[in-house]
Amino acid sequence: MRKYVIMGVQGSGKGTQAKQLAADFDLVHISVGDVYRWHVQYHTKLGAQVRRAMNAGELVDDSTTETVVRDRLALHDWNYGFILDGFPRNRRQAQFFLESYDVDAVIHLDLPDSEVRRRVLARRLCSNCGMDYNLIEHRPAREGRCDACGGELVTRADDTEEALAARLADYHAKTDPALELFRGKELVISVDATAAKGAVQRAIREQLGLPQPVRKPQADRRR
């Protein structure tokens, strides 16, 4: 059984890397953000609480987040293990996790703030259908227009220099101490997240001692 936590600043590719590990090793990808989005979508009591926090520009409080994680892990649907994404976000949550669960490794996707800015400020959103774009990796066929519906692509309301600077400052103030706590337990592996997605995945597996992805054979170009 493999049990991992994946941590990294916004834009570091946590979800992408976690999903590939989960798919290849039969792990359950537990995204705290996805859990919250489900509750918001289905208008649960927790969803209302999450929406209030979001509207106020705040994070959901520690005790609620810890309860969500505890309840999700208590389902025990992770026969071969899990990879936890989006938790812990601060030192208190890290202490709670260490006191309650054992973990094999904490995967830290290391990304400089300058690269975070480059990636996040390139994000666009279709004003009509909501499809996500990134002008670095996923440009639309027609400039400024959604490939799916032709709607106008706009910048997200919270993707401004000022808002991003505030999020980065908050991340370093709260999450860096959580990482230090895990480092003290010799659980952290750090991977350079500036590389291409495939290279990041290979680096993660190398440090964890996991088999590398199987390369698909290229088609015979003589045909």
Automatic annotation (TrEMBL):
Q: Where does Zn(2+) bind?
A: C126, C129, C146, C149
The compartments listed are: Cytoplasm
Q: Where is this region: LID?
A: 122-159
The molecular function GO annotations come to:
kinase activity
Q: Which organism is it from?
A: Catellatospora aurea
Adenylate kinase active site lid domain: from which residue to which, for each copy? 123-158
**Origin: domain of life:** Bacteria
This protein is called Adenylate kinase
**Source organism lineage?**
Bacteria, Bacillati, Actinomycetota, Actinomycetes, Micromonosporales
